[in-house]
Amino acid sequence: MTQSAEAAPEAGSPLPQFPMRRTCPFSEPREYAALRESEPVSRAALKVNGKPTWLVTRHEDVRRVLGDGRVSSNLKLPGYPHQFHIPEEMLAQVRLMLLNMDPPEHTAQRRMLIPEFTARRVRELRPRIQQIVDEHIDAMLAAGGPVDLVTALALPVPSLVICELLGVPYEDHARFEEWSAALMNHDLSPAEYGAAVQALDAYLDKLVTLKESEPGDDLISRFLEKNAAERVADHVDVVTMARLMLVGGHETTANMIALGVLALLRHPSQLAELRADPALLPNAVEELLRVFSISDSGTARVALEDVEVGGVTIRAGEGILALNNAADHDEAVFPDAGTLDIHRKEARGHLAFGYGIHQCIGANLARVELETVYGTLLRRIPGLRLAADPESLRFKDDAMVYGVYELPVTW
C-alpha cells in the first residue's frame, strides 16, 4: 500500500522547513537521520516561499529519483522547488542551462561537452594543475603564516584552472567570483540575484561574441566550432553554458578544498596516514566528498507524472528534493556514516556529484584538483595547522554550496 500526498502530513500539522542547518560541518543536518529512519520520503515547506515539496533521504531512493525519466530538472515547471525567490516575470525570462534541461536538449549539449572532461583529458591537464598548485603554495611559503587558505589556495586554484579551460581571462577573476558568490546566496533579494546574473551574463556575452570571430584553444571555442557543424545551441545558450561552467567549475571545488583540509587537520591520525602513504589519497578524496556532500539541495526535481518512491506516491507536478547529503550518510550503505574513514571501501558509492544524466560533468576534473591540492599541501607543508579556534570559523549556512568563509592556517 502506498501513501499519497493527500495522506501526509496530517491536516493542519506544520511542515518542517527546508533547508535544514548543519549544526556540525562534518555532519548532515540532524533532522536527516530521523527522516531516513521514520519517514524517508516526507513533506517539507521551502523557507523561501513556504511552498510544500518532497524530501527524499535514503540512498536507494535518491538514486531512483535522480535516474528516473519521469521527473524533470526544468526549473520553469510549476511545482519546481526553488531555493531562491524568483518572481514569475523573472522566471519567464530565464534561459535554461544544462543543469536544468531535460532530454533531448540536455543530451545534445552534454554530448558536445563530455570530451572536455574525460579521464584521459583530465590526465593531460594534471601537470598544469600541479604547476598552479605549486605556484600558490610557493607564494604561501614566501609570505609566511598565518594565511587564509581560502583566498591563498582553495579559491584561486580551481578559478585559474577553469578560466584556462574555458578561455576566460583570469585577471577578471575578482569580478566573476563576486558574481558567483552572489548566485549561491539564499538570502539575496530577487533584484540582487537578478543583477548578479545580468552582470555575469553581460561579461560572458562579450567573451563568447569575441570567440565567435576569434576562436582560441579553449572549451568555449571548441564548443562553438562543434555547434557550427551541428547546431544544438544559440548564442544565449552558449553564454548560459559558460556561466554554469565558470561558476560550477570553481565554486564547488574551492569549498571542498577548504573543507577537506579542515577535516584532515581535525583528524590528525588520518592526515598522518595520508602523508606516509599518498596512494591513499584517491579514496580519501571520495570519503571527504561523501562526508560533506556540499551541494545538498542542487538535485531539485519536479514529477512529470505520478511516481512511487519508497512506498509513497508523488503526484505529477509536485516538487522533489533528492538530498545527496542525506543519502551519503545512510547507514544501510555507509556503516558508521558519521565517521570520517579514509579507508572506507564503499566511499566511491557516494552521490556528492549527483547521479543519472545530470551527474556532474566535471567530476573527473574536481577529483584531480582535490588530489593534487591535498597531496601537495601534505608533502610541502608538513607542519600545517589551524591558526584559529575551530569554534570561530564561519560556515556557509546561507549558500546553495556549503563551505567555510575563511580558514586561517599556519605552519
Automatic annotation (TrEMBL):
InterPro entries per record: Cyt_P450, Cyt_P450_B, Cyt_P450_CS, Cyt_P450_sf
Residues covered by region (Disordered): 1-23
PROSITE patterns linked to this entry: CYTOCHROME_P450
Pfam families: p450
Keyword vocabulary terms for this entry: Heme, Iron, Metal-binding, Monooxygenase, Oxidoreductase
Keyword Oxidoreductase attached: yes
Recorded family membership: Belongs to the cytochrome P450 family.
Name of the protein in question: Cytochrome P450
Organism of origin: Streptomyces pyxinicus
Source species taxonomy: Bacteria, Bacillati, Actinomycetota, Actinomycetes, Kitasatosporales
